[in-house]
Fold this protein.
Amino acid sequence: MFLSIFDVFKIGIGPSSSHTVGPMVAAGRFLALLCEGREVVPGAGSLARLGCTLHGSLAFTGKGHATDRAVTLGFAGFTPDSFDPELAQKAEADIQQRGTVSPGGLGELRYQPSQDLQFDYDTTLPGHANGLVLSAYDSAGQLYARETYYSTGGGFVLTASELAGSEFTAEGPSASYPFRTASEMLEMARKSGKSIAQMKLENELNHMSREALDRGLQKVWQVMDSSIERGLATAGILPGGLNMKRRAKGIHEALLAERGTNIAAPHMINDWISVYAIAVNEENAAGGQIVTAPTNGAAGVLPATLRYYLDHVPTARREMIEVFLLTAAAIGGLIKANASISGAEVGCQGEVGSAAAMAAAGLCAVLGGRPEQVENAAEIALEHHLGMTCDPVKGLVQAPCIERNGLGAIKAVSAASLAMRGDGTHIVSLDACVETMRQTGMDMSHKYKETSLGGLAVNVPEC
């Protein structure tokens, strides 16, 4: 299966790619199935009502991640990439009042979230920790159609049958450079004399025009950069009941005031890197538009690292944005193919750890690093996130998630810098590190995998 850069970087909404974007996409896919008349139970009457059951992590942290709202709006025809907050708010109020949705092509269907959307805390579906079952019923209450979906992280959604039959590889048969592992990627780079970004570019151009690729990359960075700017300009309290204060605006104003003064210590560059990431993740926590990179929970790491390069590295050139994004996407594809980017599957090492590896690789590439140094940068960043749990307080993508993005970006910059100081040779390969992350995630208790049943989630009293 070919994994495009636009599979890795999806434009969506906060607060979670697996718990918000994925369920909304699943609802849309289910509507399409109903429109096509597929999988209808023989003998069923006319379609009349929709229902949903959330399982595993989607149940445990669904309220805090707005999963119920995502499914509801998905049933109403909303999609993450074209989401309009004002229209969504109005639609949600209408659904609550009338108890119906009217998706295109299906007419008016009964759907009352308080009755038709259930949180099953006892049953984890066999395919993945993020499972949901979507159902439709006829006017007599008999089953009309049913499908099981898994939200596997980063906005990726698979049916149960797709998950059972899928072999997710970083590049498909039509790729010019079909590397499945980092070692294969480096060997292809050596033989071809091309950079990782150049190989990834050729793979993309087998599937789309150069013009479409350019437009897509420009849009991805525009949304990333806009999320930084909105976060830096917005104050207030984040939603969800934790009463967490937005910090990015105040930190940014202080940094601007200190710029050029004798109190601006060299280590303050870390604060600049952090504030860019915090800005993005505060926007994500507020339900704003962001880019999965590779997930919503880790959406701030990569934009912050790229913004650091553009604003603080004297030799930076804007045309290198493409190189950064292509390189980062290649590394993200390898991690997705060989381990996981889902916090519910492997903990936060799969989210912020993967993002840091991608960002480190991208930065190393635009700084002039050779493929071996780029791979080393990714490995360093990922290695030093191994074992990181996913334990969101109150099930919200706020504490510790927002600050973790800041520290993830700092680690990415440090990893790229260390790799540039070496010649690319190192003891632990990226492949070994990715496999270690996978094994660590499999061994990790479910309490620490986006269920809010352990860690900070139970040791920090709710406000």
In short: The first strand starts at residue 11 and ends at 13.
